[in-house]
Each structure stands twice: as C-alpha cells, then as structure tokens.
Amino acid sequence: MAQRHTPLHLAADLGAAVLDTSITLWWRWPILIAAGMTSRDSAELNRMVSEKVAAATSGAIAAQTETMRIASRALTGKKTPHAATAVVAAALKPALRTVKANAKRLGKKRSKKRKSAAR
Length: 119
Description:
The chain has helices at about 5-35, 40-75, 85-119. By secondary structure, the chain is mostly helical.
C-alpha cells in the first residue's frame, strides 16, 4: 500500500530537508567559493551538478507516476485524500533523499579529515 501523505507529513519532510541542506551547504561553501579559482574540487562540483539533474529527473517521473496513480483511482471511483500533497511529496522525495545523503556523507568526510589532521 502506498504511503499516505498529508500536509503535515510534507511540512515535516521539508523541515528535515532544511536541516540537511544547511549541513550540506556548510561543507560545500568552500568548494563553491573556490570553484572559480582552482579545479581542486572538480569531482565534488561535477557530483553536485549530476545529483541535481538526477534528482530533478527522478522527481518529475515520480510526480507523473503519482498523478497517473491518482487518476486511475479516480476512474474507479476511489478518492485520494490530499492528492496534491501526494504529488508534491512524490516529486520531492528524490531531492530530499539526496539532501539527506549528502549531509551524512559530507559530515563523515570532513570529520575523517579532521581526525587525521589532529594525529
């Protein structure tokens, strides 16, 4: 059974994304600022761009899939409460997952560098 999405669940997901985004930006600002100066962090820059494209594409496909699921339920006479919220949640899910993964990955990556520098 599909997960039920309410406006409250969507707001909670977006609140968590704000925290994850701030962590990610905290670690990526130096890379973004230095982007015009050196190609030292070009791998991370390329990863940032490709993640954005992949998340946008996955989100668009997920939104279309959810819209078709809601439409097919409507054709059979079944109602979908909070249909618009379900479409938005489906569209945002890939981006929210990427933001959360980046916050974890970058936090671990930087803490490892700090530990090795302290030795």
